[in-house]
Amino acid sequence: MRIILLGPPGAGKGTQAESITRDYKIPHISTGDIFRYNIKNNTELGKLAKQYIDKGLLVPDDVTNRIVEDRLSKDDCKEGFLLDGYPRNVSQAEALDRYLGERNLKIDHVINIVVDRDELVKRLSGRRVCPSCGATYHIFTKPPKVEGICDNCGEKLIQRTDDNIDSVLKRLEVYEDETKPLVEYYGNLNLIRNINGNKPVNEVFEEIQALIGDEV
């Protein structure tokens, strides 16, 4: 089974990806993880990507495509995979289609987790982190025992710069601009399936399970 998981920051993609890959026994492929792996291991593709990242530039589509295709060629992807963070645009989607088509493979599901903007802002702006031990909290859903203080080490919690309201709104705007054409692309292929991400985590996964069914 080959799945693409879409959804804005704060939609809970990471949590759902864990459940999907666990229950359906397919690898979770995140572009961020792939980049970090290749850079850490100093591969040729990693060196190439690092040149752009070090300059604060986006890694070009052709480099990203090559890194993803290299990952998809590994043995653990033979029975399927879950893609998270790729494709990010129509050009990458077309490259992925070509890669799979050449191998007589195809994407089975494009799952788009949809969450109301107000809820996304609430989720993202409510996050707090410990600068000392890295523990993560949320003022609404996972508050510390003592307000503003880390349970683990007693350090004062902080709000990351990219979690303030202005940054959150900008991140959501960028995502919507990037993703709208992608949703239309997969919609035209009758692959996109919208999932209500406003629900509790377990109910969101139940909806995903109902969509995927018993496929293996």
From TrEMBL:
Subunit structure: Monomer.
EC number(s) stated in the UniProt entry for this protein: 2.7.4.3
Pathway assignment: Purine metabolism; AMP biosynthesis via salvage pathway; AMP from ADP: step 1/1
Region (NMP): 30-59
Entry GO CC: cytoplasm
Function: Catalyzes the reversible transfer of the terminal phosphate group between ATP and AMP. Plays an important role in cellular energy homeostasis and in adenine nucleotide metabolism.
Reaction(s) this enzyme catalyzes, per UniProt: AMP + ATP = 2 ADP
Binding site for Zn(2+): 130, 133, 150, 153
GO process annotations (BP): AMP salvage
Subcellular location: Cytoplasm
Chain residues that bind AMP: 31, 36, 57-59, 85-88, 92, 160, 171
Protein name per UniProt: Adenylate kinase
Keywords assigned by UniProt, alphabetized: ATP-binding, Cytoplasm, Kinase, Metal-binding, Nucleotide biosynthesis, Nucleotide-binding, Transferase, Zinc
Keyword hit for Transmembrane helix: no
Pfam families recorded: ADK, ADK_lid
Family, per entry: Belongs to the adenylate kinase family.
Region annotation LID: where it falls in the sequence: 126-163
Record-linked PANTHER family: NUCLEOTIDE KINASE (PTHR23359)
PROSITE patterns to which the protein is assigned, alphabetical: ADENYLATE_KINASE
Predominant location: cytoplasm
First-level EC class: transferase
Annotated domain remarks: Consists of three domains, a large central CORE domain and two small peripheral domains, NMPbind and LID, which undergo movements during catalysis. The LID domain closes over the site of phosphoryl transfer upon ATP binding. Assembling and dissambling the active center during each catalytic cycle provides an effective means to prevent ATP hydrolysis. Some bacteria have evolved a zinc-coordinating structure that stabilizes the LID domain.
Annotated GO MF terms: AMP kinase activity; ATP binding; zinc ion binding
NCBIfam families (alphabetical): adk (TIGR01351), PRK00279.1-2 (NF001380), PRK00279.1-3 (NF001381), PRK14527.1 (NF011100)
